[in-house]
């Protein structure tokens, strides 16, 4: 049975992402759009629109055309949105790369996406060049400059004529982030202009906007959460997006205080710090009205602890809530509303452990994993979602697409949820094997492939095990030594540490005689988890 959102449907403009997101700034050209949280540098809404025009023109002048992929390998800066919207306005597709990736991981994404150009910074150039040796590019652009490479000023040059590209929002891709989906190796998630425009429009009724919203952007723009919810949503509101290149608690708190931040979109580890760290008491956070957590489950008691602590100060009713989504959903399907933005007929506050309501234009089903039928009212089931935010599919992977989005357009999330009588959803478990660590997706299959590449490892399996202190899942490897090997736990972890990004590192190793597998060869992870 399809369960509709309790909110009325919203109109989804038939516009490209830059047309939609940058429109709000036209009435406020001198208002700040982007602020460097560390340096204080400001790009106004008027300047942003002009810079986007220049980037699009200069990419076109460099030979890029509609549908070409441009990879971006950068931390959060005020120039990331300029580059993203410039790529989009040129009709090209931006594929964001995780700032922590190793050369091998970067090369995989460059090759799989078919990227022609890579835009990066000098600090990342060594890894970018090493990756480009394995997956050749037409060009590497280094924003802050490096000998032999074009830079930001080249992308902002005045000579190239402006371009107008005919974009079909419903079908043309705007971004190609990589996700492991519900299982398996990373796959390119094809998101259209309409997907991203829809998701920003869908979230709007649940937000009570002030005149001068300031959003702190510490979650990375290379993650779909940062790209849509922080960057594009903040700009589409006509607000200011304040960037930080990485999470440092002191920088984060100081920026909230000095920039009078009104909204923080975070992941649970940041909320944990705000609930417990003594540094929090040293800063004036009274400008905050909302903290919304996403990317991983948020414990109800942690949410209440953070909210109660912040309300002890001068904060005027700061509200802590959480939302739910995934890359394949652009990413939001559910979120807790601001106070006063509840749907018609709502009787009580959204429980802090809940991910809130389905956003407008969104349908849900809860399916019993055992029977494949709709779960009975009040019972748990795998969450299926249908709406305009559902991805177009996985790049060059029809099988994976079919396994995730069925013929009726339902995306099978792999997460188990329950819904109450008022339409609030709580995610309670996962069907899928994916490990979520600090908001990042870690695919066991990817780690297993790297492990098996070791000469002294005959077989391996990876599962997520809970960390009692943080509540995060940590990758644990079960390793079968090759005959005659005396490989140690430390040696396995050191090997993995240089092969994968930090959030993918194996944190525990256990040696076993054989990996338990089904007759079809599928690893029996439940047997490993029961050890």
Automatic annotation (TrEMBL):
Source domain of life: Bacteria
GO MF annotation: an example: CoA-ligase activity
Entry annotated with the keyword Ligase: yes
InterPro entries the record matches: AMP-bd_C (IPR025110), AMP-bd_C_sf (IPR045851), AMP-binding_CS (IPR020845), AMP-dep_synth/lig_dom (IPR000873), ANL_N_sf (IPR042099)
PANTHER family, sorted: AMP-BINDING DOMAIN-CONTAINING PROTEIN-RELATED, LONG-CHAIN-FATTY-ACID--COA LIGASE
Family: Belongs to the ATP-dependent AMP-binding enzyme family.
Protein's recorded name: Acyl-CoA synthetase (AMP-forming)/AMP-acid ligase II
């Amino acid at each position: 049975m399809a369960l509709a959102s309790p909110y009325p449907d919203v109109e989804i403009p038939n516009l490209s992402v830059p047309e939609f997101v940058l429109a709000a700034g036209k009435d406020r050209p001198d208002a700040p759009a982007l602020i460097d949280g560390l340096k204080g540098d400001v790009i106004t809404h008027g300047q942003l629109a002009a810079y986007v025009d220049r980037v699009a023109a200069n990419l076109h002048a460099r030979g890029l055309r509609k549908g070409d992929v441009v990879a971006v390998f950068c931390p959060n800066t005020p120039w990331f949105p300029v580059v993203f919207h410039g790529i989009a306005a040129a009709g090209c597709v931006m594929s964001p790369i995780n700032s922590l990736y190793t050369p091998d991981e970067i090369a995989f994404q460059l090759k799989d996406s078919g990227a022609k150009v890579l835009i990066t910074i000098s600090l990342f150039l060594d890894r970018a060049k090493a990756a480009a040796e394995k997956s050749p590019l037409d060009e590497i652009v280094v924003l802050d400059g490096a000998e032999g490479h074009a830079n930001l000023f080249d992308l902002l040059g005045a000579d190239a004529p402006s371009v107008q590209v005919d974009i079909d929002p419903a079908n043309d891709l705007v971004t190609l982030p990589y996700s492991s989906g519900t299982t398996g190796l990373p796959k390119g998630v094809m998101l259209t202009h309409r997907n991203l425009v829809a998701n920003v429009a869908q979230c709007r009724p649940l937000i009570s906007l002030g005149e001068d919203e300031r959003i702190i952007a510490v979650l990375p723009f290379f993650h779909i959460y940062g790209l849509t919810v922080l960057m594009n949503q903040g700009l589409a509101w006509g607000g200011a997006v304040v960037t930080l290149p990485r999470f440092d608690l002191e920088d984060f708190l100081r920026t909230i205080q000095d920039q009078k931040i009104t909204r923080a979109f975070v992941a649970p580890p940041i909320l944990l710090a705000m609930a417990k760290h003594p540094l929090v008491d040293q800063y004036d956070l009274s400008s905050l009205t909302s903290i919304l957590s996403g990317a991983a489950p948020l414990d109800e008691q942690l949410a209440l602890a953070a909210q109660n602590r912040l309300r002890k100060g001068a904060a005027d009713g700061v509200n802590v809530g959480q939302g739910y989504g995934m890359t394949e959903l652009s990413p939001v399907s559910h979120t807790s509303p601001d106070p006063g933005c509840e749907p018609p007929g709502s009787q009580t506050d959204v429980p802090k452990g809940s991910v809130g309501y389905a956003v407008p234009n969104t349908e849900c089903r809860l399916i019993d994993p055992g029977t494949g039928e709709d779960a009975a009212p009040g019972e748990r089931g795998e969450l299926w979602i249908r709406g305009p935010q559902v991805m177009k599919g996985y790049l060059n992977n029809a099988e994976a697409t079919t396994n995730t989005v069925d013929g009726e357009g339902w995306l099978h999330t792999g997460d188990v949820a329950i819904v109450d009588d008022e339409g609030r959803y709580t995610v309670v478990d996962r069907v899928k094997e994916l490990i979520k660590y600090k908001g990042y997706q870690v695919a066991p299959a990817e780690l297993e492939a790297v492990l098996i590449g070791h000469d002294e490892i005959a077989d391996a399996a990876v599962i997520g095990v809970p960390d009692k202190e943080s509540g995060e899942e940590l990758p644990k490897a079960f390793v079968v030594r090759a005959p005659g090997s005396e490989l140690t736990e430390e040696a396995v972890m050191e090997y993995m540490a240089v092969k994968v990004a930090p959030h993918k590192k194996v944190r525990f190793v256990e040696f076993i005689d054989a990996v338990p597998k089904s007759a079809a060869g599928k690893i029996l992870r439940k047997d490993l988890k029961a050890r």
